Amino acid sequence: MTTITLVLGDITRESADAIVNAANSSLLGGGGVDGAIHRRGGPEILEECRRLRAAHLGGGLPTGQAVVTTAGRLDARWVVHTVGPVFSASEDRSGLLASCYRESLKAADGLGARTVAFPAISTGVYRWPMDDAARIALETVRAARTSVEEVRFVLFDQRAYDVFAARIG
Ligand code: ADP
Question: Among 33, 99, 125, which is best to mutate for testing ligand 1, by the most ligand atoms less than 8 A from CB?
Answer without folding.
Answer: 33
